[in-house]
Amino acid sequence: MRRLNFPNHPYQVIFVVGALVTILFVFFVTTSPQNLLSSLQWTRATGVRNLTSSSHGLKKVKVINVTYVPPRIKKGEVVKLDKLEEGLARARALIKHAAQNQTQSISAYKDSDYVPQGDLYKNPRLFQRSYLLMEKLFKIFVYEEGDHPLFHNGPCKNIYSMEGLFINFMEKDKRFRTNDPDGAHVYFLPFSVAMIIEYLFHPIIRDKAVLERTISDYVHIISQKYPFWNRSLGADHVMLSCHDWGPRATWYVPQLYFNAIRVLCNANTTERFNPRKDASFPEINLITGEIKGIIGGAPPSSRSTLAFFAGSLHGRIRPALLQHWKDKDEDIKVYETVPEGVSYQDMMNRSKYCICPSGHEVASPRIVEAIYSECIPVLISQHYILPFSDVLNWESFSIQISVSQIPNLRKILMEIPEHRYLRMLERVKQVRRHFMVNDPPKRYDVFHMIIHSIWLRRLNVQISA
């Protein structure tokens, strides 16, 4: 591997990286950054389209390992790739047809298990058609390189539990996982950022270069052994992380940062999260590793608290929330820590609205905690792309307010009519299935919703050998 010492200026970095990747490679990218499912419109772009964009997030990166190996693509592999792309093209056409044929009943796409309906979804017809095609066609190859505990493994019992659970579910999956890399639509990089930090990051030395060394070396290995990374410049490769440093972990390989599909809890657009190619997934804090005992809550008539929040004072939003509402109102319970003898879970279960402010990072496990507890989430965040927002209409089951509206929180919630509250409550109960953690996974649950988010982003990339 050749080590290149890059200049500090970010635009010089981008220039040099861009020069390295202008190899004869063409793909198609959707023009809509917000709703990939409903747009499905492609425009021609070169493989360095994203590499020439703003370089925020690379300012502190001084050394980058860059390797390019010409793709070793045989004639038979080209034929297989063409067939894969033809299949994806047909899927795009069928999804577009579902969007255009408004008179066709959604039940026309036979599914005895579940039929998406109502304003919970931006377009239930498109979602169902896309989801069924995903189940029928989508194949994922998981690279076998790498050893425990950093690879093929992850945490399953804390705030980063979805990182480990997804990796573990993907390892055991039989519907989407394929052992034939030539028949795969995407390639999963099974490293865990949380485990790399836990095992390699020294709390005193604080050498973040452990991420660079581990991930750069891994991409180097798979790019040397297989032709797929270099064939697409990483555009059909997937990494997933719920750790705060998940986005940072991709800085050190420009193609991973700019081209690959990054599935992140920390879906912050100011940190270069790009919804055209990156996917947001929920942060779920499974303290015991299970969801038993945290599902359901009191009926509306027994929810005596208007709104509730308890959490540490960090980030820019929470101080404003506590300043205005801590110990200020009997109907809005805001604490740093719940009082002695008061149960956090009971407070969630007995509140009509659960306040979910961002902390140091944009994502918050309280969003899913609220949904599990049948409590309407009140979202206070900035620059956050909500999970599964290609499909879900978050306005139908949550309240979203800006930081400037925090002083008016009580007025905003009190002015919500009872019939609207009850309708949102029904949507919360309906949407819960999409955030459920099941072992083994069940259709339309959180695992399958993550897979569907990846499927959408692969639909919006066309690769030519």
TrEMBL record:
One Pfam family per UniProt:
Exostosin_GT47
Q: GO cellular component terms?
A: Golgi membrane
UniProt signal peptide? none
Q: Which UniProt keywords apply?
A: Glycosyltransferase, Golgi apparatus, Membrane, Signal-anchor, Transferase, Transmembrane, Transmembrane helix
Q: How does it sit in the membrane?
A: Single-pass type II membrane protein
MF annotations from Gene Ontology: glycosyltransferase activity
Where in or outside the cell is it found?
Golgi apparatus membrane
Q: Which family does it belong to?
A: Belongs to the glycosyltransferase 47 family.
Name-wise, this protein is Exostosin GT47 domain-containing protein
